[in-house]
Amino acid sequence: MSPWLIPSVVVFTVAAGFGAPSQAELAAGKFYEVVGAKVDARTYNGFRRYHGSCNHCHGPDGMGSTFASALVDRLPTIEVFRRNVRDGVRIGPSVMKGFADDPNVAPYIDDIYAYLQARADGALGRGRPERLEN
C-alpha cells in the first residue's frame, strides 16, 4: 500500500468527523444540521464548548442569567459573534473578557455559534443533544 494513501484517508476522515456544513447550508447562513433531535458533530461540539466555558455567565442552553444576557433571544451575526468572543465586550458596567487566547474557546467559536444558532432558530431544544452518526 502506498504511504500516501493512508494520510489521505485520515485527513478525509478527520475533516468529515467535524461536521463541516455543506455549501448550501453556508449559503443559507446556517452553521448547524439538526435531523430529528440529533445534531451534526460541529453543533454537538458547540454544545460541549458552550457548556464548558459560556454557560457560567450566559446560562444553560443560552437562556441568559442575572449576570449576562440570553444569547438565543438576540444572536448576533457570525462576524459580530466572532469579534465579541475573541475581543470581549464592554457595555456600561457589563464586561465580558475576550477568549482569543483560550485554547478551549478560540478554535471553536464557529462550533459554539452553530449550537446557539440552532437554539435561536428553534431547531434544537434545551438539554444535551444527541449526535448524528456519520
TrEMBL record:
<protein>
    <submittedName>
        <fullName>Cytochrome C</fullName>
    </submittedName>
</protein>
<dbReference type="InterPro" id="IPR036909">
    <property type="entry name" value="Cyt_c-like_dom_sf"/>
</dbReference>
<dbReference type="GO" id="GO:0009055">
    <property type="term" value="F:electron transfer activity"/>
</dbReference>
<dbReference type="GO" id="GO:0020037">
    <property type="term" value="F:heme binding"/>
</dbReference>
